[in-house]
TrEMBL record, chain A:
Name the record gives this protein: ATP synthase subunit a
Cell wall biogenesis/degradation recorded as keyword: no
Similarity comment text for this entry: Belongs to the ATPase A chain family.
PROSITE patterns: ATPASE_A
Organism superkingdom: Bacteria
GO terms under cellular component: plasma membrane; proton-transporting ATP synthase complex
Protein function: Key component of the proton channel; it plays a direct role in the translocation of protons across the membrane.
Matches recorded under InterPro entries: ATP_syn_F0_a_bact/chloroplast (IPR045082), ATP_synth_F0_asu (IPR000568), ATP_synth_F0_asu_AS (IPR023011), F0_ATP_A_sf (IPR035908)
Gene this protein is translated from: atpB
A Pfam short name: ATP-synt_A
Ranges that cross the membrane: 64-82, 112-132, 168-185, 205-224, 244-265, 271-292
Length: 299, 156
């Protein structure tokens, strides 16, 4: 792998990035020479420095690819089972799928009291997809990047949920749904009233007028905090988990004794992580349901 | 952990998957499951009903059996009674018939005896007339003495 541990770690934490390098950027070539770009170029980044130079005009091909691939896989499996599902006796994998569906249906029924054709499928998508993305964490950290290197791909970060873009992207989608349903159910007036007339309210109109900006500030902070905490919670948990796997993997190259210990540690952390990845998927789903339930409540 | 277009890509991907799940996965699975649930509930209901029906039918069967037995016993009793009656009647008939036959026979015997007596009486009177004729030496005019002979015969 990499020459020293710092390189090893930063290599593991660098995404395969495809983006636009600005004009005038000086690229370092493999042989140490440099090339100055005469115009803005879309290209794969060679390392973290180029990736950060790309700014917003970049795509983490690995994160997006894995997350799309895993989502497509789980959706395809569920779709095939949905086609197979009849009123007859279910068997095999269909049993498992129906168990999950029933579990999510019950959870949604308990927490979400409105009527919506969206929330339950949304919850199912989140739970299964986030679980799949988190599950990539259990694959030993070096396996897929090494394979990718063998076919000429320099960087490969395989756990999409350790990419803040992915988790925040999902959180922003949920946030958009929250806003959409808030306005749809309560109307713009109702939504604005919800943001400005609570938690402080007064009978006296003058006092109320003073309260409105205070309320608005508090409510806006609370509202914005929801998607950010939703996204960062998942990101933080998975990132930390991944980080520990990487640190444990570092020990493999440090002699037989430490290597054996690393094996035990990796196994133990993986077992513990089974709980973490499921729990995080569940929390993401549960909070989405709760947020949407709050958006559906009319005061 | 720099934010970039991946964020937008992920939002679109998420939207597509949610739409797909909402359109093609969730409704099919849930409908199938709910229908199956209903089917199972119906099946259990039917089984319960059938069990109850069976119990009722068994009870009814037992009732009918008991009734049939009672009826049979009654019929046998009646038949026995009737048989006794018939035997008694037959006995009575036989007895009266026998008595009648005996009475008829006795009457006939009596009649025969009377007839014999009559014939005997007639012969005695004839013998008496013949004897008298012999004694008197001449024939007695039967016509002339008929009255006498008849009274004689009646006296015998």
């Amino acid at each position: 792998m990499a020459g020293n541990s710092q390189e090893y770690i930063s290599h593991h934490l660098t995404n395969l990035t495809y983006g636009k390098l600005p004009a005038g950027y000086v690229r370092e070539n493999e042989d140490g020479t440099t090339t100055e770009l005469t115009e803005a170029t879309w290209t794969f980044a060679h390392g973290g420095a180029e990736a950060s130079a790309m700014g917003f005009n970049a795509v983490h091909v690995d994160s997006l690819g894995w997350s799309f691939g895993l989502g497509a896989l789980i959706m395809f499996l569920f779709w095939r089972m949905a086609k197979k599902a009849t009123t007859g006796v279910p068997s095999g994998f269909l049993n498992f799928v129906e168990m999950i569906v029933e579990f999510i249906d019950n959870t949604v029924k308990e927490s979400f009291h409105g009527r919506s054709a969206l929330v339950a499928p949304l919850a199912l998508t989140i739970f299964t997809w986030v679980f799949m993305m988190n599950f990539m964490d259990l694959i030993p950290v070096d396996v897929l990047p090494t394979l990718a290197m063998a076919v000429g791909i320099d960087y490969m970060k395989v756990v999409p949920s350790t990419d803040v873009n992915v988790t925040l992207g999902m959180a922003i989608f949920v946030f958009a749904l929250m806003i959409f349903y808030s306005i749809k159910i309560k109307g713009i007036g109702g939504f604005v009233a919800e943001l400005t007339l609570q938690p402080f309210s007064a009978k006296n109109p003058v006092v109320q007028a003073i309260f409105i900006p205070v309320n608005f500030f508090l409510e806006i902070v609370a509202l914005i905090a929801k998607p950010i905490s939703l996204g960062l919670r998942l990101f933080g948990n998975m990132y930390a988990g991944e980080m520990i796997f990487i640190l444990i993997a570092l020990m493999f190259s440090a002699g037989i004794a430490l290597g054996l210990m690393a094996g035990v540690l990796q196994w133990a952390w993986a077992v513990f992580h089974i709980l973490v990845i499921t729990l995080q998927a569940f929390i993401f789903m549960m909070l989405t349901i709760v947020y949407l339930s709050m958006a559906h409540e009319d005061h | 952990m720099n934010l970039n277009l991946t964020l937008i890509g992920q939002i679109i991907t998420f939207g597509v998957f949610v739409w797909f799940c909402m359109k093609f996965v969730w409704p099919h699975l849930l409908t199938a499951m709910q229908e199956r649930e209903k089917k199972i509930a119906d099946g259990l209901d039917a089984a319960n009903r059938a069990a109850r029906d069976l119990e009722l039918a068994q009870k009814e069967a037992a009732d009918q059996l008991r009734e049939a037995k009672e009826k049979a016993a009654e019929i046998i009793e009646q038949a026995n009674k009737r048989a006794n009656q018939i035997v008694d009647e037959a006995k009575d008939n036989a007895r009266s018939e026998g008595e009648r036959i005996v009475a008829a026979a006795q009457a006939e015997v009596e009649q025969e005896a009377n007839r014999a007596k009559e014939a005997l009486r007639k012969q005695v009177s004839e013998l008496a007339v013949a004897g008298a004729a012999k004694i008197l030496g001449k024939s007695v005019d039967a016509t002339a003495h008929d009255e006498l002979l008849d009274s004689l015969a009646k006296e015998l």
